[in-house]
């Protein structure tokens, strides 16, 4: 979890490989309308996100029922969103890739071919609710090496099992 540009996809793919689990890029499940809204520079509101969150919860349920588990790269900015995910499957665990705004701005501005424009980074920080002590997970500095982050997350997940 984390704001745009925090490295969710990169770290998520590395972590999924280490844990030998399926990987889902949550952005792939956004509707065309949601993508267009963001591409036009308008942040999604909770109503826009509702069907997306429910489809992600379905993926979590399926991954849990299969016994295989999975790794999902998703902003999961608000506690309410994470609660939807936790209700969807036992053992949901979060890796918060915490990143300072300047680095996020620079990373997002340097991307090509992504629907999320740099001007929406501020709205993500406005929505961001860091993990609370009662939420299972780990917060790391997203400016660190992605391989090192994935290694630390894999150790934490394996310890939790």
Description:
Helix 1 (8-19) crosses helix 7 (146-160) and helix 3 (46-66) packs parallel to helix 4 (79-88). By secondary structure, the protein is mainly alpha-helical. The chain has one domain (8-160): P-loop containing nucleotide triphosphate hydrolases (Rossmann fold, 3-Layer(aba) Sandwich). It has helices spanning 8-19, 32-39, 46-66, 79-88, 101-109, 121-127, 146-160, and strands at residues 23-25, 71-73, 94-98, 137-141. It contains 7 helices and 4 strands, in the order αβααβαβααβα. The two termini are 20 Å apart. It is globular and about 40 Å long. The model has no long low-confidence stretch (mean pLDDT 91). Belongs to the gluconokinase GntK/GntV family. Keywords: ATP-binding, Kinase, Nucleotide-binding, Transferase. It catalyses: D-gluconate + ATP = 6-phospho-D-gluconate + ADP + H(+).
CATH homologous superfamily identity: P-loop containing nucleotide triphosphate hydrolases
- Report the CATH C-level class: Alpha Beta
Distance between the terminal alpha carbons, to the nearest Å? Answer: 20 Å
- Looking at the overall shape, the CATH architecture is 3-Layer(aba) Sandwich
Give the class from helix and strand content and strand pairing.
Answer: mainly alpha
Q: How many DSSP E strands? A: 4
Uncertain spans: none
Mean pLDDT across all amino acids = 91
Number of helices: 7
Could you say which overall geometry the principal axes of the C-alpha atoms support? globular
- Share in helix: 40-55%
- In sequence order, what are the helices and strands, one letter per element? HEHHEHEHHEH
Number of domains: 1
Strand content: 5-15%
- The main sheet orders its strands as 1-2
Rg calculated over all Cα atoms = 15 Å
Tell me about the largest β-sheet: 2 strands, parallel
CATH topology: Rossmann fold
Family: Belongs to the gluconokinase GntK/GntV family.
Catalytic activity: D-gluconate + ATP = 6-phospho-D-gluconate + ADP + H(+)
Pfam families: AAA_33
Pathway: Carbohydrate acid metabolism
